[in-house]
Amino acid sequence: MPQLTRRRTLGAAATALTGLVLTGFAQAAGGSTDLRTTGEKRPEGHEAHGGHEGHTGHAAPQPFSETFQGRRIEGAPSHADGHHGGYTVLVDGEELHVMRNADNTWVSVINHYETFATPRAVARAAVIELQGSELVPLA
C-alpha cells in the first residue's frame, strides 16, 4: 500500500472539495435561475413537456413587454426564421439573440455560459450585464 504523503492528502482534499462545489452548482442550477429574485422556476416532470395531449413539441413561452432597470425589454414567439419554437427578444428595440437549449433552458449572446428558465430572465440578465451599454446587433 502506498505511503500517505502530504501531496496525496492535499490532492484527495482538493478532489473532494471540487466534487462538493460542483454538486452545489448543479443543485443551484436545477432549482431556479439567479434572477433568482424573479420567482421564475424551470418546469420539471410533465409540466416541462406540457402534458401529452396534442404534444407537438415544446410550446413557446408567453410574450412579455416591460421596463427593467430603465431598459425596455420585449419578447414574443417568432416564426419569421422558419423554425418552430423560435423566439425574439428585444432590448431597447435591438434584437438580443437567444437560443433554447435541449433541456428547455435559455442562453443569449450576452450570457452564453449561463442558462435561464425563461427568455424574460435572459433579457433581464442581459440588461444587468450590459450595465447601461448599448446592445450592438449581430452582423
UniProtKB/TrEMBL annotation:
<dbReference type="InterPro" id="IPR023199">
    <property type="entry name" value="GriE/MELC1_sf"/>
</dbReference>
<keyword id="KW-0732">Signal</keyword>
<dbReference type="Pfam" id="PF06236">
    <property type="entry name" value="MelC1"/>
</dbReference>
<comment type="similarity">
    <text>Belongs to the melC1 family.</text>
</comment>
<feature type="region of interest" description="Disordered">
    <location>
        <begin position="31"/>
        <end position="64"/>
    </location>
</feature>
<feature type="compositionally biased region" description="Basic and acidic residues">
    <location>
        <begin position="37"/>
        <end position="56"/>
    </location>
</feature>
<feature type="signal peptide">
    <location>
        <begin position="1"/>
        <end position="28"/>
    </location>
</feature>
<dbReference type="InterPro" id="IPR010928">
    <property type="entry name" value="MelC1"/>
</dbReference>
<protein>
    <submittedName>
        <fullName>Tyrosinase</fullName>
    </submittedName>
</protein>
<dbReference type="InterPro" id="IPR006311">
    <property type="entry name" value="TAT_signal"/>
</dbReference>
<keyword id="KW-0186">Copper</keyword>
